Amino acid sequence: MEQMTVAPVRVSWWRHLYVQVLIAIVLGVALGALAPPWGGAMKPLADAFVKAIKMVIAPVIFLTLASGIAHMRGLGELGRVALRALGYFIIVSSFALFIGLVVANVVKPGAGLGVDPASLDASAVSEYASAAAHNSLSAFLLDIIPTTPISALTEGSILQVLFVAIITGVALALMGDAAAPIVRATDQLGALAFRIVALIMRAAPIGAFAAMAFTIGHYGIGALANLVTLVITFYVTSALFVLLVLGAIARFTGFSIVRLIAYLKAELLLVLGTSSSESALPSLMKRLEDAGCAPGIVGLVVPLGYSFNLDGTNIYLTLAALFIAQACGIDLSLADQLGLMAVAVISSKGAAGVTGAGFITLAATLAVVPSVPVAGMALILGVDRFMSECRSLTNFIGNAVATIVIARWEKELDRDALDRALSGRPAPVTP
């Protein structure tokens, strides 16, 4: 049968989701700056949208991954994909940590501040320090296994959902033809979950408006003034990492990082507005499937990447840690800095893609590096929220690139679909 290309339907510019979200972000900034009390009062609205998105994250991951594994050619493929993904994550995220370390030594954003460590208010970051203590390796490993399979879907972390989804998918694969009705039902439920996501995403402009209004209204743009060098350094470093490092990986894989960013512009604006890459996770999975990545690859690599492939968070960890050391006049030797990086490689794994997770991970890193005081985090507490957006954006793009790379390695990437998606051409239909 011949394939026919459906002529694109012209849609008014203001009906595009990315346009609506962009306008909402601008209006949110304006409200927060002109009427801070009103902006600060928008937090419940922002939290409600993010909570609605989180409501469907677990079902989307579970159904996509369980179905994907059930459709795989063999269980050996599952192990190979997981190992390749983890290997890629470790290499790229470690490189991000190293880049943060190099930039901090070259730019020295904290040099000359002359802060007395004894004058720092440790109570200001005690909440994050206690959360970091819970983020130990033993607690992390125990948290992967849920109390029950159902609890993973109702209150567990992404890793718990992954654990249950993998076990379910393997069980379905081992059942063979007997599992066919269950697999078909899983596929249909997955389509239903993505339809629910599409409905919730119609409220994305409201969520982005409220979140941005709260951020500006509560924290104030003036909080950037004293630490503008650190914030600018972090944003520029992250942008160069995306364009040069991830761009080189993308080019080697056969696609353009710029076109990928343009393709995901609506999701990226949502991440910018909410400061959370998790808010766009379900939408990212659907977009990558539409771009030719096999559902099984998407279902495994994207959720795994949200815990183990946090490029933006890694750049932030070493850059912020050295900023604190420089501000306090602490001279770290090369061995100290490499030790800090080694600790960060471990502590950065398992951090969730939500607002504040990077700050908690920084506390966990500094807690085992006695040379740099944990109380020094109080220096950047006021601007951490403004760096959270950049962390989330970089993490998001990094996971999109990783999924396409792994799909290509596994020969599970439809290159025609990818080219169509990134060039904005409509998909052909078979009559």
Question: If you had to describe this structure to a student in words, what would you say it looks like?
Answer:
- With 431 residues, this protein is mainly alpha-helical.
- The protein has a single domain (14-429), classed as Proton glutamate symport protein.
- 72% of the residues lie in helices and 1% in strands.
- It has helices at residues 17-34, 36-40, 43-71, 75-107, 126-134, 137-144, 149-154, 158-175, 180-201, 204-219, 228-253, 257-263, 265-274, 281-290, 295-308, 311-327, 334-347, 357-367, 381-409, 415-423; strands at 4-5, 428-429.
- A two-stranded antiparallel ribbon has the order 1-2.
- The longest helix is centred in the first third of the chain and has 33 residues, at 75-107.
- The radius of gyration is 22 Å and the shape is globular.
- It starts with a strand and ends with a strand.
- Mean pLDDT is 81; it is low at 1-7.
Can you tell me the number of structural domains? Answer: 1
For the biggest sheet, the summary is:
2 strands, antiparallel
Rounded radius of gyration (Å): 22 Å
Alpha plus pi helix count: 20
Averaged pLDDT: 81
Structural class, by secondary structure, is: mainly alpha
CATH topology: Proton glutamate symport protein
Question: What's the helical proportion of residues?
Answer: over 70%
